[in-house]
Each structure stands twice: as C-alpha cells, then as structure tokens.
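A further point concerns the way the authors explain their paired sequence and structure data. Since the whole study asks how a given chain folds, the encoding of that fold should be made plain. A single example would do more here than another paragraph of explanation. An entry of this sort, consisting of the sequence and the corresponding backbone structure tokens, reads as follows:

_____
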Amino acid sequence: MRSRRLLAGVTALLALTACTPQPPPPPTPTSTPTAAPSVTPAAPEGPEAVLAALATAVRSRGEVAPPELLAERDLGSVQIEPCRMLTAEPRPGESFTPPEPTFAGLVEVNPVPSFAGVTLPTTVIEITVTGFASATVAERTAERARSARCPADFTLSYTDTKARRASTVVRVDGVRARLTTGTVPGARPDPELGYLPGEALLVLAHGPLLLTVGVLKLGPGDNGPKVTSLARQTALEVASAALAALPPNDSPSPAPATSPS
C-alpha cells in the first residue's frame, strides 16, 4: 500500500498537466477481537450441588469442612432451630419439626471442637439448608420460625457467663429473614478463656429451600455488643452470598440424593 502511494506521487510530479494523482486506497480495517459471550453459570442441581455451591460461596471466610448431607432415612430427625445459639445448650421447645423435608445438609466454616484453646480472633459459621417439596412449604416453615418465641436469657455452655438473646425481622436482598442475636452484656472477657463471644442467626426461605446462617465471633476486647454487631454483619454478608450462589427463587426443589444400594 505504501509503494502504490509513492508511485502516484512521482507520476504527479512528472506530469502535473497530464494526469491527476491517484488517491491512496482506504486503509485496511484492523480487526478487533470480540470478547467471548458471557455465560451464566448453571444453577446447582441436586442436594450435593447445592451444598457445594454454598461451600464455594463461603470459601474465602476460612477453613471449610466437607459439607455433610443427611441420609434420607434420617430426615425424620430434622429440626428447625430459630432460637439456637452455638454457645448455648438447646432447650426443649426451642425447635420444631418441619413438614416432610426432601433433604437437609450442613456447611461449616472454621469449626471448633472445643471453646478452649481457640486461636483469636475466630469466626465460626454454620449454614444449614433444608429442601422441601415446594416454595410454599418452605415459606410456611420460615414464617413459623419468624414467629418463634425464644427465652431472653441464657448461660454460655462453656462457662457460667450470662448472655442475652434478642430477635427481629430483617431483609436480606429483599428476602424476609428472622435474625436472632446472642450478646454478653458485660464488658469483661471470660477470665479463663480470654475472649468475648457474639452470635447472630438468620433463618430465611429461598424458593423451596430453608436456610439458617449462624455466625459466632470469638475475639479479644471489652465490648460484648460490638462483637455481636460484627457477627450480625457477617451473617448478613454470608446469607447474601448464599442466596447468590443458589438456584433462582422459582426453581423446583432439588431431588433427594439416592442412597447407594
């Protein structure tokens, strides 16, 4: 292309009256690589895929233990625990049996076998997911959880320290959820363990699934309500990430896992 323009220029200089210079040909358009079309990840299918999606959603939060899927024969023992605090012993009347779950599973982050010798600060997260035949059943179960009454006072399971429980209804990405918190009112860490706990528990429905997101913060400091506030914020963030990782709200419930013969 450059030699052709040069030849035209020389011809014009030698015979200006005889010919007209030829305009250079238009430049060859450069091809711009097109971006690959975006592909929306497929929604997880099946209980194992749902648990794997939840585990992936919280992978950055710490050490994630292998998700646990309850065997089909054990589904009759599933309990919904809107009052449960990880630092409290369960009491009768604080849980209820849901109607015919199709599957149930657990995802844990930074599980601690004991409250003694904990590396500080530590954030423990438990996500339970329970599948039902329809979104209607899941929402009805969530509504029962939202209206549950929980005793205000409880004692930490690993010490004699008293704590306070409080409940309210919040929204997580537009979804109504029950939020229960556990707070040590005093400003002094446990004298033996050296830390203050703060807890938050969310219960919400997403399509045919019922989720509970429990967060326990264990950290040094002298402000129990502040530790609980941090646990609350983490629970909201984890619940939002969990909702984003799950199938759309109108998807059918994953089929229960088939037990090996």
Remarks:
- The beta strands are 68-69, 103-109, 122-131, 153-155, 162-172, 175-183, 196-206, 209-219.
- DSSP finds four helices and eight strands in the chain.
